[in-house]
Amino acid sequence: MQQNMVDRTFLVAENLADLSRFALDTGARRGKLVLEDGTIFEGTSFGYEASIAGEVVFCTGMVGYPEAMTDASYGGQILAMTYPLIGNYGVPQSEHWEGERIHIAGLIVSDYIDTPSHAQSVMSLRSWLQQQQVPALEIKDTRLLTRHIRTHGTMLGKIVLDDEDLPFYDPNLDNLVASVSCRQVERLGEGDLTIALIDCGTKHNIVRSLLRRNVRLVRVPWDYNLFDQASTFEFDGIVISNGPGDPKTVQKTIQTIQIALERAVPMLGICLGHQLLALAAGGDTYKMKFGHRSQNQPCLLNDSKRCFITTQNHGFAVGTLPPGFAPWFINGNDGTNEGMIHHELPFFSVQFHPEARPGPMDTDWIFDHFLARVRIEKEARG
Ligand SMILES: NC(=O)CC[C@H](N)C(=O)O
Question: Residues 20, 26, 27, 33: what is their CA dihedral angle, to the nearest 10 degrees?
């Protein structure tokens, strides 16, 4: 027995030596993740060979790296995946992505797997990162990094290759929505209800979820004036999408929502859309210590014993609800607000992602609930 244990220890040591020889043989470049408080994690580059700065956040989802990486809400962020094996099922075709490209600024993993195995995989994660020019680092101890961020809060950081250096960059100071929103109005689908989707960096599954319900969808840029006589079209409701950065930097969308509130146009806000609706209606948002990024966030439906397991990706939250709104959902872990609903008017919003991708479909009914109310309001208007 004791002999076995000794043998195994020896084997592990030998494998580790093999691995480091492999890294040297493949010419993998060494790199560092440098945090703004001076903490350094050494690692090996497996993505695009460049240095990059951003905000370091962690996601505890066990699957879904292609969806998370293409979610525009992660714009400006260096994403650390806590699930240790990343790359093992490769990268699917772009129709399965949540945006047109990779939106994260950089990727941090514990173990990068370069031998993907999945029926839908068309390339390795390494090739994808290199094609799309996104740096990535394998640092092994993502647990220590995550515990550090949980203790001290989300912080700025940079992936630095070899002896290169660059300044820290805080993405929350900029309006990132302007760089990820669509540029032109796009008309999709057919149906008797017309929904205007304000694209602040919408996940594709919000578009798919609406089209699946047979609506005529008009996707508009974040700063599009929906109420300008000359440029606009008839619509029955508005969906305000998810998106990157601090909601307070997205003033033009807030102004559009304010007009929609005055005119009682039915509205559904999702994630950033929830925060924007709250700000437009007179509420307030704040930056959370380390945010919610996973696919198992429990959300309690207010005044009930119902709990939904939700997908989330946000670093800001609604602190003060606007007048006229009640809490709709509350986070079962930390009690933060996860949604709001107006007492009388057709205004709803959720902090989580009812479109999931990746994650559970528990709250897919939010789209049905919203569209049913849009129909009621349309019929009442005649
Ligand atoms: N997924 C989102 O829409 C994120 C909203 C916002 N950027 C936040 O981090 O809180």
Answer: -60
**For helices 251-262 and 272-280, angle between their N-to-C axes, nearest 10 degrees:** 60
pLDDT tens-place string over residues 182-230: 999 999 999 999 999 999 999 999 999 999 999 999 999 999 999 998 7
Residue 204: CB atoms within 10 Å: 20
- Other CB atoms within 10 A of residue 337 CB: 25
Q: Is 182 designated active site? A: no
Q: Of the residues 173, 241, 242, 274, which should be mutated to test ligand 1's pocket, given the most ligand atoms within 8 Å of the CB?
A: 242
pLDDT, averaged across the chain? 93
**C-alpha to C-alpha distances, 305 to 139, 188, 298, 300, 332, nearest whole angstrom:** 41, 38, 12, 7, 11
Helices (H) and strands (E) in the chain, counts: 9, 19
User: What is the ipTM metric for this complex?
Assistant: 0.98
Is 292:275 a contact under the CB 8 Å cutoff?
A: no
4 C-alpha to ligand 1 centroid (Å): 51
Please tell me if the CB atom of residue 99 comes closer than 6 angstroms to any atom of ligand 1.
no
**pLDDT-based confidence at 280, cuts 50/70/90?**
very high
Cβ pair 359, 353 in contact under 8 A: yes
pLDDT at residue 26 in the model = 59
Catalytic-residue membership of 353: yes
Tokens representing residue 119 in the block: 């029926």
Structural domains for the chain: 28-173 (3.50.30.20), 177-381 (3.40.50.880)
Determine the distance separating the centroid of ligand 1 and the alpha carbon of 271, expressed in angstroms: 6
Pairing of strands 77-81, 216-221: unpaired
315 is in an annotated binding site: yes
Q: What percent of the chain has pLDDT over 90?
A: 90
Q: Is 355 a catalytic residue?
A: yes
Nearest atom in ligand 1 to the alpha carbon of residue 176 is: 7
Ligand 1 centroid vs 27 CA: distance in angstroms? 37
